[in-house]
Amino acid sequence: MNRVALWCAVVLAGSICAGAVADEKVNPTKTDPVVGSWQGILPNGMGGEIRVVLKVKSAPEGGLSATMDSPDQNASDIPVASITVDAGKVALDVAAVRGSYEGKLDPEKLEISGTWKQSGQTLPLVFKKQPAGN
User: Fold this and answer.
1) Which residues pair with 58 in a beta bridge?
2) Mean pLDDT to the nearest integer, 35-45
3) How does DSSP classify residue 131?
4) Are 115 and 124 in contact (CB under 8 A)?
5) Are residues 115 and 81 part of one domain?
6) pTM (2 decimals)?
7) Are residues 119 and 71 in the same domain?
8) Do 121 and 80 share a domain, yes or no?
9) pLDDT band at 92 (very low <50, low <70, confident <90, very high)
10) What does each C-alpha distance from 112 to 53, 92, 94, 130 come to in angstroms?
11) Total domain count for the chain?
12) How many CB atoms lie within 10 A of CB 16?
């Protein structure tokens, strides 16, 4: 009788674990560390600054999608043609403005430090993660 009870316990535990693993694959609870809103300040080359907002979402088909805002230029929802994150490196292609960005995510995943390239200029740009809801 003890063998039957032990066998039932093993089968039950295995079923619960398999269900949890399957559920994790269908409904992952981990989100990519770059998902969210990021804000940076871009020098405009004339002594001023331009605020830049990067909004990253998980794409329905997998991967990531993003848009950018430039509040000081009254521009919003500029499409990011592609966003890639690989080994902490973040790359953006913003074809709509002929711009690109390459940066590195810090270990705390709160900043992305890199460079913005547009119209032959390369400028430093550090994005800081904004609290949820901003």
Assistant:
1) 64
2) 93
3) P
4) yes
5) yes
6) 0.75
7) yes
8) yes
9) very high
10) 12, 12, 17, 12
11) 2
12) 10
User: Please, is 121 exposed, middle or buried when counting C-beta atoms within 10 Å of its C-beta (0-12, 13-18, 19+)?
Assistant: exposed
Percent of the chain's residues with pLDDT above 90: 66
Contact 118, 45 (CB under 8 A): no
Note whether residue 84 is domain-resident.
Answer: yes
* DSSP 8-class letter at 74: T
Distance CA 53, CA 9 (A): 53
Cα–Cα distance for residue pair 112/133, rounded to 1 Å: 19
DSSP SS3 for 14 = helix
Q: Write the CATH number for 118.
A: 2.40.128.120
Closest CA to 66 of 105, 108, 95: 95
Per DSSP, which regions of the chain are E strands?
36-43, 49-58, 64-70, 75-80, 82-86, 89-94, 99-105, 111-118, 121-129
What's the pLDDT tens digit per position in 8-29?
A: 333 333 333 344 333 333 333 3
Q: How many CA atoms lie within 13 A of 5 on its CB side?
A: 2
**Which residue range(s) make up the domain with 4?**
1-30
- Do 14 and 44 fall within a single domain? no
Length of the chain, please? Answer: 134
Give φ, ψ of 11 to 5 degrees: -65, -45
